[in-house]
Amino acid sequence: MTRLVGILAFLLTACATGDAAQQAAIRDSAGIRIIQNPERAPDSTSWSIATSPRILIGDEEKGERYAFGWVADVLRLSNGRIAVGDGRAQRIHVYDSSGSFIRFVGGPGQGPGEFNALQRLYRLPGDTIVVVGGYEREQAIFFGPTGNHVRTLSPLAFRVGLPDSTFGLPYPRAFFSDGAVLASAGYHNPSRGMRGPDWRKPIALVDSARVLRMLPGGKVLADYGDWITRRSLRYVSPNPRDPRGDGFSFTNAEFFPKPAWVTRGTDLYASTGASFEIRVLDSNGRLSRIIRKVHPPNPISRAWADSVWRDLTSRPQLSYLRLAEADPPTMPTGAPATDRILIDPTGNLWVRNPALARPEQITWFVFDTTGVLRHSIRTPLDIRQVDSDRVVAILQDSLNVQRVGVFELRRRR
């Protein structure tokens, strides 16, 4: 518990008070409602997150039931139970509403109810838990509320609905209330294994995908168009036959803008991360709303960029790349505007603005169901779920030990 003193010492209160007289500008353009919000929330003091968790899970001294290798994701179910996805052990830890261990679900392997690349957890109606892997060929695995394996959804089930063979297998990104899946089908990238003329210079790679709303049988319900899903900087080995590997990539590193998606009903809320703009698309893929907020530039400091490079060049497992002799990567001029979107049970939209190298400056902006900015909360917590009166977050201390905490969300009127 003492290891968490540093992170929990931050005051998890709302940001500085903005001008309450500021109002969002709302207009319609070609049938699309555009909500332009000011930089600061009119009410930025009434909501806050408690400084100490109601429930804290994670204690290596209690054995494997309470220890995590790497917390990939966490869910709080409707009955208060907590599901923690361990991406290293490849299993789900389930705890009751007080944080006491109940059971393990799943495990590593290729059999029914097993997986090898746990990346995300999704909660569907009836407290069904879906495990989604981190690779395009991974299956979506469904578990019932008691941990029983219900079904496995192969990406091949969607393949028949793709426009042509230029796409890879669809990857599930989220789930809609009508049973449809938000899937991204990446374009085959012939440059992924390429080597440049000079191994000292990184290769910039951009992966795009067609994003679709699909039924498991392959029927396409909506086509959301092409999105950039991954940006990478790749360093190749001076020796292409080195047995330790042919290179290393910064893939979707925190300094690259990356898309964020969340669903509510049959609507999709999506952001590219490059600007503070959330697009709302209906069940047919039609753009219905654009939610914007004034967002001042957030430049990436040279000192922070240098520290990232020093960390990379000091990793023993990457010594074969001789990065000390390579050119440092060219960082973007500014940090991403957004990198995560959540929706609470009442329909409020929570959008995170990251703060590179300064976790205490991470800010969540809360918009009401009409898209108007109402609140802002500054917190270093890695929030994964927002309920009506609490948030669920992943915590990591200075020794990189991870725990899961449930914190009270105070909504003062």
Question: Layout of SSEs?
Answer:
Elements: H1 5-8, E1 25-29, E2 32-37, E3 47-49, E4 55-57, E5 71-76, E6 82-86, E7 91-95, E8 101-105, E9 118-124, E10 128-133, E11 140-143, E12 149-153, H2 156-159, E13 167-175, E14 181-187, E15 203-214, E16 220-236, E17 247-251, E18 260-264, E19 267-271, E20 277-281, E21 287-293, H3 302-313, E22 340-343, E23 349-353, E24 363-367, E25 373-378, E26 382-386, E27 390-396, E28 402-411
Parallel strand pairs: 2-21
Antiparallel strand pairs: 1-2, 3-28, 4-28, 5-6, 6-7, 7-8, 9-10, 10-11, 11-12, 13-14, 14-15, 15-16, 16-17, 18-19, 19-20, 20-21, 22-23, 23-24, 24-25, 26-27, 27-28
Keywords:
413 residues; mainly beta; 5% helix; six-stranded mixed beta sheet; globular; disordered N terminus; single chain; five-stranded antiparallel beta sheet; 28 strands
Describe, in plain words, how this protein is organized in 3D.
The chain is mainly beta and 413 residues long. The protein has helices spanning 5-8, 156-159, 302-313, and strands at 25-29, 32-37, 47-49, 55-57, 71-76, 82-86, 91-95, 101-105, 118-124, 128-133, 140-143, 149-153, 167-175, 181-187, 203-214, 220-236, 247-251, 260-264, 267-271, 277-281, 287-293, 340-343, 349-353, 363-367, 373-378, 382-386, 390-396, 402-411. Helix content is 5%, strand content 42%. Strand 15 (203-214) and strand 16 form a beta hairpin. 32% of the residues are buried. The two termini are 33 Å apart. The protein is globular and about 60 Å long.
